[in-house]
Amino acid sequence: MRLRIDEDGIRNVVEEAIGKSLTACLQCSKCGGGCSHSEEFDLTPRQVVESLLDCQDQNVLDSRMIWLCGRHCSGCQAVCPVGLPLNDIMAVLREEALKLDIEPKYEQPSLVYHKFEHCAKHRGEGEASESMVGGETQPA
């Protein structure tokens, strides 16, 4: 049971934008449990909702999570038993952060990018035939 409700908090902005109450969240962790990007987050989707419900707006707006989640993925939305539109929630939070001049909290491409984009095997080129040793190309 939540004891504190901040009537002027970001929670209300989010709920108005998505047309649902965040109290619908069951805190089941399915959203974060099935996320392939969760290793990059400082908060899980569940923790974001929980923080908004607990009036910890600054904690949410200062997180890396709102900048990384919900851009080209909908896995968390698909598994949410109450149908919270998590992508829309993250989009609203990004907008609110920008209004408050809070900049994104990451400078490098995601870990997923490094794992898949820089690996020839995952780019579909098969095993790399050459490897770099001391700045020179050597046969594998």
Number of strands: 2
* Number of discrete helical segments: 8
What is the total domain count?
Answer: 2
- Let me know the average pLDDT: 75
Low-confidence stretches: 113-138
Principal-axis shape: globular
Helix % is 40-55%
Strand content: 5-15%
Report, as a whole number of angstroms, the end-to-end distance: 60 Å
CATH class of the largest domain: Mainly Alpha
Q: How would you describe this structure to a colleague?
A:
With about 140 residues, the chain is mainly alpha-helical. The chain has 2 domains: about 10-105, Fumarate Reductase Iron-sulfur Protein, Chain B, domain 2; about 110-140, no CATH class. It contains 8 helices and 2 strands. The chain has helices at about 10-20, 30-35, 45-55, 55-60, 65-70, 75-80, 85-100, 110-115, and strands at about 130-135, 135-140. Strands 1-2 form a two-stranded antiparallel ribbon. Strand 1 (about 130-135) and strand 2 (about 135-140) form a beta hairpin.
